[in-house]
Amino acid sequence: MAPSLHGKTALVTGASKGLGRAMALALAQAGAAVALVSRDEARLNEVAQQIRDGGGRAEVMPADVTGEAQVARVGEDLATRMGDRLDILINNAGVNLRKPVTDFTLAEWNHVLDTNLTGAFLLCREFVPRMKGRGYGRIINMTSMMAHISLPGRTAYSASKSALLGFTRALALELAGDRITVNGISPGVCDIEINAPLMQNPELRASFLARTPVGRWGMPSEIAAAAVYLCSEEAGFITGTDLVIDGGWTAQ
Ligand SMILES: NC(=O)c1ccc[n+]([C@@H]2O[C@H](COP(=O)([O-])OP(=O)(O)OC[C@H]3O[C@@H](n4cnc5c(N)ncnc54)[C@H](OP(=O)(O)O)[C@@H]3O)[C@@H](O)[C@H]2O)c1
User: Residues 28-45: what's their mean pLDDT?
Assistant: First the structure.
């Protein structure tokens, strides 16, 4: 039986496209009311409409996750429009800049760290108080297989995702007594728009697929199904860990 999230309120960052969109749709399909956060209001509205067309509830809350004041405004919005509690927080907003370390400006380095790591901190600081005292809470931080292994050109990305995994473990310990679980999901290469240049380049495609034992890309629906499970009542004993969904890449 598919896990039910009826009666739960969820917030997904980076919900405008890619994996965040897939997770928002899946959480809504499982019954959760979903707050959609990213900078692109038009795209968020399209996702919200899709959820409403399927009979679900979605609210659009445009914000940049790196902005302290903007995250606080999302907190106020959520309280006004969805109630002053949150059951599920998915810190999914992320960016990747691929280049040699010597080519990074400080601003570029900070942009990756601010988005992938500090954004999750700001969201957790804002919403953990609304999860406490209720005997249920689920936080998922979207890490990456690049938190576990790496490739040339991924210094900022790997550093941010490894740090996010450390943050995940420490926060899981802080919140375990409140029955709030905190876990990572570490995808391998997934079949989404942002990876099109990689998937369509014959050499890169061959080299990435050769390193993926199952011999294909991950599907957003596979990541979304894992997120729904980790957010369910049934996953209450899973905390402080990271679910690697990479077609076997990191097993080698
Ligand atoms: N796809 C993969 O193969 C893969 C593999 C491993 C890990 N991941 C991780 O999974 C997450 C989602 O990745 P994706 O592949 O779905 O990427 P994507 O399609 O590029 O989506 C990224 C999302 O993050 C949002 N975002 C970026 N910066 C933001 C900011 N400052 N404030 C608010 N929202 C922001 C974007 O929204 P707006 O542009 O609308 O603001 C967008 O919704 C990321 O954390 C990524 O590192 C992905």
Answer: 98
Ligand 1 contact, 38 CB (< 6 A):
yes
pTM of the model: 0.98
Looking at residues 104-131, what average pLDDT do you find?
Answer: 98
Indicate whether 249 belongs to any domain: no
> Residue 206 belongs to what domain range?
9-242
Rounded distance from Cα 133 to ligand 1 centre (Å): 31
User: Is 28 part of a structural domain of the chain?
Assistant: yes
Q: Based on the structure, what is the number of domains in the chain?
A: 1
3-state secondary structure of 128: helix
What does residue 87 show for φ and ψ, rounded to 5 degrees?
-100, -35
* Catalytic residue list contains 229: no
Does ligand 1 come within 6 angstroms of the Cβ of 132? no
CB atoms under 10 Å from CB of 162, counted, come to 17
Does the structure show a pLDDT above 90 at 1? Answer: no
**Distance from Cα 191 to the centre of ligand 1, integer Å:** 13
Helix (H, G, I), strand (E, B) or coil at 41: helix
Q: What is the CATH number of the domain that holds 59?
A: 3.40.50.720
Q: How far apart are CA 49 and CA 70, in angstroms?
A: 23
In this structure, the strands spanning 242-245 and 180-187 are parallel
